[in-house]
Amino acid sequence: MITRVDSKPDLDQLIPSAHTGDTVTDTLGIRTEGRCPFEPNPQSDSGRQPLFEEPVAIRDTGFRSYLHNLWLLLCGETGAIIVSLVSLAAAARFLRSAGPWLLEAMVAVILIRFAASFTKQHRAVLNARLLRTHLRAMLAEETAVALVFLAGCYVMRWPIGHVTAALFLALNLTAQAGLMIVTRSASRWMTSLRSSHKNHRYERQAVIAGTGPKATKVADAIMKAPELGTHLLGFLDFHKSGFWRYHDAPLIGHPDSLERIILEGQVDAIFIALEPEDIPRSAHVFAIAERTGVEIYLMPDIYQTTLSRPSLAHLNGFPALVYRTTPEDRLSMLLKFALDKVGAMIGLLLTAPVMLAVAIAIKFDSPGPVFFRQERAGLNGRRFPLYKFRTMCVDAEERKADLTERNEMSGPVFKIKADPRVTRLGKFLRKYSIDELPQLFNILRGEMSLVGPRPPLPAEVSKYEAWQRRKLSVKPGLTCLWQVNGRNAIDFEDWMQLDLEYIDTWSLMLDAKILAKTVPTVLKGSGH
């Protein structure tokens, strides 16, 4: 995670490319000759040698500038808009379905793509990612664009056929993937040609403050992604001196010498990547960079995390760094929210006759209410009323204290296979999980999700260990890994581990797999 403090873009020096990931070793044009570059040179009259040669004027032709600007357009949202418009026109022309609606649809595509560009998350400044990561992000964006476009077709009642719409979406997805791969490869090729030149004045010159693990990670991000157009001059450190280098980047002095380094040559950016104990001393480095107009990149991940992932946020205008142990893919979470609502409504419609029959059967089977209402702990411990079909006798809670010695589960959970409090009908409802159907109302109310860790009792939560409490960091669900992997046959700690595994590996595909496994598990009666 790299936070840029001074965000002035330099498009002539840095060719933007969101498509990085291959390993290429950069070489530096600094010769240390067995000593630190800023140590005094005994052969120099001034007692020190300059780091840089005199600036060399670089001429640029108008045609080259034109190509450069054109390339920037194709690499960005403009290229994506052009591809979408061409795909739509090609699909309509191929199927001979063009008409007055086509112009309106093209305008809608432009607006949709502009809206999509505003909803994108901020990309880390030096974040080298693999091709598959970019393909996954591109697929998610194109899926959202396609859904909005189809919704627009329905609302505007454009006479676009199903085949035309399908052909457009297929052409658009294929062309967007091709554009991404081509621009990524071309950007890397152009930058590799520039990086192979001995003169690095075409690149951004950067200095890293720090030599610890955080600083070396920043150096790796620069060296392994030459398309970023950033040349690493070296490191500054409060503790090291003399001859030291990391790969081809040497130690070029103490942070107190930063002002002299900036004044003697070209320094475009400084990355403050100090270890926690040196952060109080970084104010002087920050002040010098700010005073000389050099861009400052601050690595604010002070704490070494094992589970949480940092992300940038704003608190009423104040920048903040948020650490989350839960998924934060906004598009995927929005789709999960929509699927929960739609799935719950469809589930209620399909199971309404079954639920009515069950309600009547419960009234005839045993005295008491049809529904059982119980307080449960939801997201981050929020308490909410959970609804189930009643499967036990009315005084079940009062009789629980007499059965604690027969508990068959470890931990704070209470479960008995042959529970004497369960009614005759209740055994059948529990075997096929029919008693859980009223929780579809909890999903519609926003208290639960279709897939997620089962909501525990507040009394159970009070006995949790700290690591077990993390299961409450996501919204509870109707089914999860525990339900499809044996349920009551699983030990309590293994149950907690499965819930945490779900949180740490969550994706929409994982939810789909769990739902697909839940259906046969329920029909077999093995999930009770």
Report mean pLDDT, rounded to a whole number: 78
Low-confidence stretches: 3-61, 121-129
Structural class: alpha/beta
Number of strands: 13
Helix content: 40-55%
Q: Roughly what fraction of the amino acids lie in strands?
A: 5-15%
What characteristic shape results from the CA principal axes? Answer: flat
User: Strand order across the biggest sheet?
Assistant: 1-7-6-2-3-5-4
Describe the structure.
The protein is an alpha/beta fold and about 525 residues long. About 45% of the residues lie in helices and about 10% in strands. The chain contains 15 helices and 13 strands. The strands form four sheets. A seven-stranded mixed sheet has the order 1-7-6-2-3-5-4, with helices on both faces. A two-stranded antiparallel ribbon has the order 8-9. Helix 2 (about 75-95) packs antiparallel against helix 3 and helix 4 runs antiparallel to helix 5 (about 160-195). The protein is flat, with a radius of gyration of 31 Å. The two termini are about 45 Å apart. The model is unreliable at about 5-60 and about 120-130 (pLDDT under 50).
Summarize the structure.
By secondary structure, the protein is of the alpha/beta class.
Task: Spell out the key features of this protein.
528 residues; 15 helices; flat; alpha/beta; two-stranded antiparallel ribbon; disordered N terminus
Q: How do the strands and helices of this protein lay out in sequence?
A:
Blueprint: E1 3-4, H1 62-75, H2 77-94, H3 100-119, H4 131-156, H5 162-196, E2 204-209, H6 213-223, E3 230-236, E4 245-246, E5 249-253, H7 258-264, E6 269-272, H8 283-292, E7 295-298, E8 309-315, E9 318-324, H9 330-365, E10 371-377, E11 383-389, H10 396-399, H11 424-431, H12 439-444, E12 449-451, H13 458-461, E13 477-479, H14 492-504, H15 508-524
Parallel strand pairs: 2-3, 2-6, 3-5, 6-7, 12-13
Antiparallel strand pairs: 1-7, 4-5, 8-9, 10-11
Helix pairs in contact: 2-3, 2-5, 3-4, 4-5, 7-8
